[in-house]
Write a structure and sequence with these properties.
Layout lengths: L1 H11 L3 H54 L3 E7 L3 E7 L8 E6 L6 E5 L4 E5 L2 E13 L2 E16 L9 E14 L6
Length: 185
């Protein structure tokens, strides 16, 4: 009878081989879960970068379009190879008066300057900036009646707000257009 008890206790325990196999399987599953989690975090990070850049660029584009829409006069000079200057003049209740948007392909920064000397960087890493205008003759003078902006912006880790991790391969394109209402009030 004693031998039967020993055999039962030996059969109820795990062997060393079974423990090694179970540990190996658990480690493979744990590694898979960790890898999956890190990949998921990378996808979320990429999405955050795209959303961050899109929000900042959309705000700047909306600001330019609004300033042009309610301008009394818009003058556009330049091209995408050298630089662009968009001068916007408002009158009456549409202060601040004169606004100048500038971009050049060397520093790739879209800036806005107000008439009292304040300048602000709107977007950095603007890789391409196009301005198209439609003009009409009003009161014997050729004036801009419609303006369209097209921007290609580099996606980055917050580069638009001062970080320094630009990526040359990822970009975001935005475009917008507006009619100039010639606000001469």
């Amino acid at each position: 009878m004693k031998t039967t008890r020993l055999n039962r206790s030996n059969r109820a325990a795990f062997t060393l081989i079974e423990i090694v196999i179970a540990t190996s399987i658990a480690m493979v599953l744990l590694f898979g879960a960790l890898y999956s989690t890190s990949e998921t975090l990378e996808v979320v990070r990429e999405g955050d970068i795209r959303v961050h850049t899109n929000i900042n660029a959309r705000r700047a584009l909306d600001r330019m379009l609004k300033d042009c829409r309610y301008a009394s006069e818009v003058e556009v000079e330049g091209d995408s190879l050298t630089s662009w200057t968009v001068e916007v003049e408002t009158t009456g209740t549409m202060a601040p008066g004169e606004i100048e948007y500038t971009w050049n392909p060397v520093d790739k920064i879209l800036r806005v300057g107000l008439e009292h000397g304040v300048a602000e960087n709107l977007i950095t890493d603007v890789r391409n900036f196009e301005v198209d205008t439609l003009t009409s003759i009003i009161d014997g003078e050729e004036v801009v009646t419609r303006i369209r902006f097209h921007l290609v912006i580099g996606l980055d880790d917050g580069f638009a707000t001062g970080a320094t991790n630009a990526n040359s391969e990822r970009t975001l394109e935005l475009a917008g257009a507006t009619w100039i209402r010639r606000n001469d009030i």
